[in-house]
Write a structure and sequence with these properties.
The protein is an all-alpha fold and 439 residues long. The chain has helices spanning 2-27, 31-67, 71-106, 111-124, 128-143, 148-170, 180-204, 221-252, 257-297, 301-328, 330-337, 341-354, 358-373, 378-402, 406-431. The protein has one domain (2-436). α10 crosses α12 (341-354) and α13 crosses α15. The chain is globular.
Length: 439
């Protein structure tokens, strides 16, 4: 598991660094730029959640076929999934272009902030058509046990984003400064490159998987099986995102004026930085999902049951270390990420609260990924509905707005949601009935 998880961790670190660096660049421009980047990040997260409609089913089926020695069937799944990814990417681009103004208005954005956000969202949506290929191709490779290729591909994407964005934002060399437009131009350039490279790799053939034009179909039993497995996960992602988006709307209405913009920017920075604390959970959860799928495909149920607990044990310590960093170094983090002191004044107490809830966050991610790896996707969906809609949003509104607790009060709801889902996913996994799930 450790060997499988390390490349995924590298991939996740590189992927998150793209967003963190974009947020860092925005912090050097203005609170309006940070708000626009933050909204785009949430919308991009929605896109990745919808791509999980294909990705989850792809990993589950490829790993099952691979574990059973049916490599030809695994390759057919990969081909069908890439075709589905391309279709969903195009659809999402059209939807995001049309709904960008509405999303900005829902986040209480006006004037310059609104204009920046809408323009950013529409340009950023171009990258979805290529990100879909990168994510689904990576899901197929991970199902086959290849964790290294996705990591190396993300390294290229990350490096390109840093170089292009920095060049265009600051006007290095012969280029004039582009400001916020430079950030999104660099991001889109990197994502387009990543999608094209994934297609090239799979066309040539990598780790036993190869694309064939005759197999790039969006029909047939395999397509239905991929969607059937992924639908609950995608629904879970959409519900979780909806809860987060409404939660973000609450953040946008905590205060008026500059203090309100500062709270919004502080939230964006904090969740970007916090991402690094749960990346080990995502990595070990992904490795565990692959091992569980392959174990069940080989009819090794006892081994499959052991996997999740091992994953939680291996990455649990890191959550405590990150909690200590968030508590004691919160001020330094905000001083680094934004030029205005008011943003740190709002964000430091909230990040110190969040420090105490890193362990339950990690456990909820690991055990949820394990259940999905087995194809048991309905229960995590149910747990997400409870946590996002009945814990996060009501508590955030009560403590953040009604009791005027500000960002710290709003984050009480977020911490409550994470704790509840950690308990429910852990309980479902420990009972062990998921080993009988049919895919």
């Amino acid at each position: 598991m450790f060997i499988l998880a390390l490349p995924v961790l590298g991939e996740q670190l590189l992927n998150s660094f793209v967003g963190l660096y974009d947020t860092y660049l925005a912090g050097k421009i203005s609170k309006d730029a940070t708000a626009a980047i933050g909204l785009a990040a949430y919308v991009g997260w929605l896109a990745s959640m919808l791509f999980s409609l294909v990705g989850t089913g792809t990993t589950a089926l490829v790993s099952r076929f691979w574990g059973a020695g049916e490599n030809e069937q695994a390759n057919k799944v990969a081909n069908r999934s890439i075709a589905l990814a391309a279709l969903i990417g195009v659809i999402l681009y059209g939807l995001m272009y049309a709904f960008a103004p509405m999303l900005a208005r829902l986040q209480n954005m006006h004037d310059e902030t609104y204009d920046i956000a809408v323009r950013y969202l529409r340009i950023d949506a171009v990258g979805y058509m290529f990100t879909s290929l990168t994510l689904i191709g990576s899901a197929a490779l991970r199902g086959a046990g290849d964790m290294r290729t996705p990591m190396l591909l993300l390294a290229v994407v990350n490096a390109l984003n840093v170089v292009v964005s920095s060049t265009l934002v600051f006007g290095l060399g012969p280029f004039e400064p582009w400001g916020v437009d430079g950030i999104v131009a660099g991001t889109v350039t990197a994502r387009v490159t990543g999608g094209i490279l994934m297609l090239v790799l799979l066309s040539v053939g990598v780790h036993g998987l190869k694309l064939y034009l005759s197999e790039l179909k969006v029909r047939g039993e395999l397509v239905w099986r991929v969607l059937r497995i992924g639908l609950p996960t995608s629904a879970e992602g959409a519900i979780l995102w909806s809860g987060h988006f409404v939660f973000l709307m609450i953040i946008a209405r905590l205060f008026d004026g500059d203090q309100g913009k500062a709270a919004y920017a502080a939230h964006i920075i904090a969740v970007r930085v916090e991402a690094f604390s749960y990346l080990p959970a995502v990595a070990w959860g992904t490795a565990a999902a692959t091992m569980i799928g392959q174990s069940l495909g080989a009819n090794m149920k006892d081994r499959a049951r052991m996997v999740g607990h091992e994953g939680a044990l291996q990455c649990g310590i890191s959550s405590i270390l990150f909690g200590l960093i968030f508590y004691f170094e919160a001020r330094w983090i905000f001083d680094l990420m934004h030029k205005e002191k008011i943003v740190g004044d709002v964000g430091v107490p909230a990040m110190q609260l969040l420090a105490f809830f890193q362990p339950p966050l990690v456990l909820s991610i690991v055990y949820g990924a394990c259940l999905r790896g087995a194809g048991d996707t309905r229960w995590p969906l149910f747990f997400t509905i409870i946590g996002a809609l009945f814990i996060r949003i009501p508590l955030a509104y009560i403590f953040g707005i009604h009791l005027e607790g500000g960002l710290v009060g709003a984050w009480v709801g977020m911490c409550g949601d994470m704790t509840l889902r950690a308990f429910l996913n852990g309980y479902r996994y420990t009972r062990g009935k998921w080993v009988e799930t049919r895919v």
